[in-house]
Amino acid sequence: MHGFNDHDVVGTAQQFTIWRQGDLVAMEVHGLVDDKVSDAWRAALGAEFRRQGHPRFYAMDVSLSQPRYSVPAHFRTAAFVRETLKHVEHAVVRVPRAGTAALVAESVLTVVGMGNIRLVSDVLEFQGMVDLMRLGHALTSARGR
């Protein structure tokens, strides 16, 4: 992910990587995401938060993922996101411009109902937000696309 190095990796599996730099945790999820992968990335991210605490900022890139998980897994993800957003100041999620991953992200945010997260599709916009968070700057615009 933009601006992170190998030494920033705090968790990894075949379909995801988690990085941490100071007050910023970032995650990239790619490929087919079924119930097992969905449960695995949530468990790994939750373990990181228990280990080092919730970050001030969180960035996630799901633009290369293909979600294929069940409705119960969808609700587990929504509950995890809602709990996480209670502990972070701002979050940004990069989604594809269209397709299943974008629809899943939108529906999760609808269920979650939190205002401190933003969905973006443009890679440069996402990278700019990651850079701002890395520098400790809060995002000025919350949820939206």
Main β sheet profile: 6 strands, mixed
- Count of beta strands: 6
Rg: 14 Å
Q: Major sheet: order of its strands?
A: 1-2-3-4-5-6
Helix and strand string, N-terminal first? EEEHEHEHEH
Beta content: 25-35%
Uncertain segments: none
Described by the principal axes of the CA atoms, the overall outline is: globular
Q: Which structural class fits the helix and strand makeup?
A: alpha/beta
Helical percent range? Answer: 40-55%
On the 0 to 100 scale, the average pLDDT is 87
Q: What distance lies between the first and last C-alpha atoms, to the nearest angstrom?
A: 21 Å
Q: Tally the helices: what do you get?
A: 4
Q: Could you characterize what this model shows?
A:
There is one protein chain. This protein has helices at 35-52, 71-85, 100-112, 123-134, and strands at 9-13, 16-21, 24-33, 57-67, 90-94, 117-120. It is α/β, with parallel strands linked by helices. Strand 1 and strand 2 (16-21) form a beta hairpin. Helix 1 (35-52) runs parallel beside helix 2 (71-85).
